[in-house]
Amino acid sequence: MDHFITYEHKQDYGIIRLNRPEKRNAISTEMMQLLKKYLLKAREEKYKFIVITEMVIKFFVQVVT
Protein backbone atom coordinates (compact mmCIF):
# COMPACT_ATOMS: atom_id res chain seq x y z
CA MET A 1 0.00 0.00 0.00
CA ASP A 2 2.92 2.38 0.64
CA HIS A 3 3.48 2.62 -3.11
CA PHE A 4 0.09 4.38 -3.42
CA ILE A 5 1.40 7.39 -1.47
CA THR A 6 4.93 8.77 -1.32
CA TYR A 7 6.32 11.36 1.06
CA GLU A 8 9.17 13.65 0.11
CA HIS A 9 11.22 15.97 2.32
CA LYS A 10 12.29 19.34 0.99
CA GLN A 11 14.16 22.04 2.87
CA ASP A 12 11.18 23.63 4.65
CA TYR A 13 8.18 21.80 3.23
CA GLY A 14 6.94 18.31 2.42
CA ILE A 15 5.36 16.78 -0.67
CA ILE A 16 2.80 13.99 -0.47
CA ARG A 17 2.15 12.32 -3.83
CA LEU A 18 -0.84 10.12 -4.57
CA ASN A 19 -0.13 7.27 -6.97
CA ARG A 20 -3.31 5.39 -7.81
CA PRO A 21 -4.08 6.63 -11.33
CA GLU A 22 -6.18 3.62 -12.31
CA LYS A 23 -8.72 4.75 -9.67
CA ARG A 24 -8.14 8.47 -10.36
CA ASN A 25 -6.49 8.68 -6.94
CA ALA A 26 -9.71 7.91 -5.11
CA ILE A 27 -8.74 7.62 -1.46
CA SER A 28 -9.52 4.22 0.02
CA THR A 29 -9.62 3.52 3.76
CA GLU A 30 -6.06 2.21 3.63
CA MET A 31 -4.87 5.27 1.69
CA MET A 32 -6.59 7.55 4.23
CA GLN A 33 -4.68 5.88 7.05
CA LEU A 34 -1.41 6.29 5.17
CA LEU A 35 -2.22 9.91 4.32
CA LYS A 36 -2.94 10.59 7.99
CA LYS A 37 0.41 8.99 8.93
CA TYR A 38 2.30 11.26 6.54
CA LEU A 39 0.38 14.38 7.59
CA LEU A 40 1.20 13.69 11.24
CA LYS A 41 4.84 13.11 10.30
CA ALA A 42 4.88 16.44 8.46
CA ARG A 43 3.38 18.16 11.50
CA GLU A 44 6.18 16.78 13.67
CA GLU A 45 8.74 18.17 11.23
CA LYS A 46 7.10 21.63 11.52
CA TYR A 47 7.10 22.39 7.83
CA LYS A 48 5.87 25.78 6.63
CA PHE A 49 3.50 24.00 4.25
CA ILE A 50 2.65 20.64 2.69
CA VAL A 51 1.93 20.03 -0.99
CA ILE A 52 -0.46 17.20 -1.81
CA THR A 53 -0.38 16.24 -5.47
CA GLU A 54 -0.34 13.17 -7.66
CA MET A 55 2.38 11.34 -9.54
CA VAL A 56 0.68 11.96 -12.88
CA ILE A 57 -0.29 15.63 -12.76
CA LYS A 58 -4.04 15.99 -13.18
CA PHE A 59 -5.03 17.67 -9.94
CA PHE A 60 -3.36 19.71 -7.20
CA VAL A 61 -4.15 20.44 -3.56
CA GLN A 62 -2.17 22.68 -1.21
CA VAL A 63 -2.62 22.59 2.55
CA VAL A 64 -1.27 25.47 4.63
CA THR A 65 -0.79 24.85 8.34
Automatic annotation (TrEMBL):
<dbReference type="InterPro" id="IPR029045">
    <property type="entry name" value="ClpP/crotonase-like_dom_sf"/>
</dbReference>
<protein>
    <recommendedName>
        <fullName>Enoyl-CoA hydratase/isomerase family protein</fullName>
    </recommendedName>
</protein>
